[in-house]
Amino acid sequence: MKVEVKNLDNQAVGELELPESVFGYPFKEHLIHLAVEAWRAAQRRGTHKAKTRGEVQGSGRKPWRQKGTGRARVGSVRTPLWRSGGTVHGPQPRSHEKNLSPREKRNALKSALSRKVAEEQLVVLENFELESHKTQDLMRRLVGLGVAEKALLVDSMENENLMLASRNNPAVKAVDALAINVYDVVGRSQIVVSRTALQRLTEVLEK
């Protein structure tokens, strides 16, 4: 499987052989769904908290005697039945993380990337060396490459111009080759990746 390699001026400068085991992986929608849900769950803080009757403010003394007052019996002002009382079965701090094995994560990413290759939504560049860190310069380059929608830009975190230029436009997101995840791949219409970054990513996915 071969893909065309371009430069930032949208000129073809060569071809790159992609391993069939990675970029020809079958599309597994359920596996991708699990990976996306696991990623979203991991973003949750899990710090939600409601106070129980043992944590709210108030005395533990019985407000009035059990019988003879004509009022309903009650043992504490902190009862959940009263205003400002404790909460029954309320949310407690916990982790929302969903466990996926390393193999499942790799296969989900291979499946998502393979779909992008099949739909011709993967643009491979010879390099991602920008002349400046200005967002408008980056967007002009992307438009010249035919990237008009939400795009994922993959290179190295050491590419400071790319990382700075992509921060001010929500339509693009720049990530390191080893930080790419399924959520970003399926959430972006196109992927623009440098040859070096693609080779680094392929080495990891082939393991």
Structure description:
The protein is an alpha/beta fold and 207 residues long. It has 2 domains: 2-44 and 97-205, 3-Layer(aba) Sandwich (Ribosomal Protein L4, Chain: A); 48-95, no CATH class. The chain has 7 helices and 6 strands. The chain has a 6-stranded mixed β-sheet. Helix 2 (29-42) packs across helix 3 (102-118). The chain is elongated, with a radius of gyration of 27 Å.
User: How far apart are the first and last residues' alpha carbons, in Å?
Assistant: 19 Å
Globular, elongated, flat, extended or rod-shaped: what is the shape? elongated
Strand order of the largest sheet: 2-1-3-6-4-5
Q: Count of helical segments?
A: 7
Output the radius of gyration.
27 Å
Helical proportion, percent range: 25-40%
Count all strands and give the number: 6
Which homologous superfamily in CATH is the superfamily of the largest domain? Ribosomal protein L4/L1
Helix/strand-derived class? alpha/beta
Proportion of beta-strand residues: 5-15%
- What is the CATH topology classification name of the largest domain? Ribosomal Protein L4, Chain: A
Major sheet description: 6 strands, mixed
Q: Report the CATH architecture of the largest domain.
A: 3-Layer(aba) Sandwich
Summed over residues and divided by their number, the pLDDT gives a mean of 94
- Using the coordinates above, name the CATH class of the largest domain: Alpha Beta
Low-confidence stretches: none
**Helix-strand pattern, N to C?**
EEHHHEHEHEHEH
Q: How many discrete domains?
A: 2
